[in-house]
Design brief:
Strand content: 5-15%
Strand order of the largest sheet: 1-2-3-5-4
Shape: elongated
Largest sheet: 5 strands, mixed
Radius of gyration: 37 Å
Distance between the termini: 30 Å
Number of strands: 5
Number of helices: 12
Length: about 375
Amino acid sequence: MQKWYNIFPQNTGLNIYIWIIFCMLPFYFIFRSSGWVEISAGVAMILVFFAAYRLTYLTKGWVNYVWVGIAIAISIAMTILFGFVYFAIFLSFMIASVQHKVGFFTLYGILVGSTVITVNIAFFTQDQLFFTQFPFVLISVIGVILLPLNSYNRMKREKLEGQLEYAQKRISDLMVMEERQRIARDLHDTLGQKLSLIGLKSDLAAKLITANPEGAKSELNDINQTARTALKEVRELVSDMRGTKLDEEVTHIRELLHVAQIKPEVKGNPVLENVPLLVENVVSMCLKEAVTNVVKHSSATRCKVMIEQLPKELKVTVEDNGKGFTLDRSIEGNGLRGMRERLEFVNGTLDVESGLGTTITICVPTILKQVSKEEAL
């Protein structure tokens, strides 16, 4: 629900009580006049000005320009008749809400021109009053020149920040959706075939249980083995889905290399700072796959892992002194293909060099993790 004090400009750096004083100040300039007709006309103009000011933020299109025009006309009249020039401060923030570039600069030119002209006129019609408040009038004129540009740029920046925040939220939602689809594909590929096989073998065993008990027993053994295989694959899938920290994965690959009698060399700090868990998990899974390939296929005696968290990217290099292999993307194995697919999901790249040994380089652009206010405090 809108609050009554929303008629005041937002985020200007001035306390709300200062704006309340600005709202009360025109009544002083009016009530110092002698005639009731002038006082009544002045009060009516003040009320219409604040109504126009509020409606400016509630309307769009040509109606918005009409209310701004009415407010500028009232400001001119108040300056000439009563020597009150400070409505121009309200107008400075008022026209800044017009984010159409041509409309803004048109209204800005009208506001600056009308303020300078009316101030000069008021120096002749309200000379005594204006000379006594000359410093404040000068500050108001400078404010009319500078404040609209500053407020216009600030509102434009806030709008862009809002759009960026919305885009980040959409990206986050799309990443969650993509991850759900990946999990669905993995579950389908892992369980679909084996559950179908279990169903077919169960039907067959039911038919053979009387006519061929030995055949039914063989089918039941196959069902048992298939179920165990499916359970093992589900456990591996759940293990991969769990967010794995890079330092945890480094510990695992050290143990794996020791068991395979391959000397591990790890350089760099595996404890990453301000890296989202999704990115770290992808890098950890790729590192696991790369080292697994070294153990299975390289016949290496040494494996070097280097971790570099650079300002613009996270870089992980796996180098071995094994026999290497032929670099051909068309016959690339499932391991390397899976690593490329995972890295593409986070805009990462995979580079493979093979000669006297193999070097795999994993690069992921740096994406800083957003820190909540509670964590910052």
